[in-house]
Amino acid sequence: MKTTQYFIYTRKRPDRSIIKDEWIEYVIQNPLREGHQSDGRIRRWARISEMGNRALRVILLDDGETVHNAFFDRDFKE
What we know:
Number of helices: 3
Strand order of the largest sheet: 1-2-3-4
Radius of gyration: 12 Å
Number of domains: 1
Oligomer: single chain
Largest sheet: 4 strands, antiparallel
Distance between the termini: 27 Å
Strand content: 25-35%
Order of helices and strands: HHHEEEE
Number of strands: 4
């Protein structure tokens, strides 16, 4: 999995360190919803059953494969 330096840095936070690589890959491959930001980055969301069906948001660079950020999104609405 390709990642940015920002992702590596923020993943050290306690709330982010619990996010497994396999969950991130799942979101990338099986998004419930996808959105595009004005800077070209791609947002994808999917529910993670192991975490009580919480929504994980993954932010990709405009190449569609480099992970820039990943976090559980409290505000996600389907």
